[in-house]
Design goal:
globular, two-stranded antiparallel ribbon, three-stranded antiparallel sheet, 9 strands, alpha+beta, about 130 residues, about 25% strand
């Protein structure tokens, strides 16, 4: 049984070849199809990892840490929800910069079995998890 809020880098599991091929042969092609104005011709790096969140979203300090807005240092990102039945919450809120006020943001929900791609040009943070794993 995994503890709440733990993660692993896929390279550490020996999945680096799979991750590199997934990025170069599938995800970069999808990103170009979805974001037609996106211009990078190659992806120079990747960071493939898994994060496990237990029920209830951890303690208050962990929830606040997850919600902190940040911008990823990469070309694009793909989030895949591996949550079990009953998983709710933990959506990604885009458009929020540290200290930003107003309604300029929107949330993309994590739905078990679904994924979404985004260009890493926007501040984002994670909403609290409500239920499930």
């Amino acid at each position: 049984v995994r503890k709440e809020h733990t993660g692993i880098v896929l390279d550490e599991l020996g999945l680096d070849v799979l991750a590199k091929r997934l990025v170069s042969e599938v995800l970069s092609t999808l990103a170009r199809l979805v974001y037609v104005d996106w211009e990078p011709w190659s992806v120079d790096s990747y960071h493939a990892f898994s994060i496990h969140k237990g029920g209830g979203g951890g303690g208050e300090s962990e929830r606040e840490e997850n919600r902190r807005s940040h911008m990823d240092v990469c070309e694009f990102s793909m989030n895949v929800c591996l949550g079990e039945k009953g998983f709710t919450g933990s959506g990604v809120r885009f458009g929020t910069r540290p200290g930003q006020v107003g309604d300029a943001s929107f949330v993309v929900d994590h739905i078990p079995g679904w994924a979404f791609l985004n260009l890493c040009q926007h501040y984002h943070g994670v909403e609290p998890m409500v239920s499930g794993q």
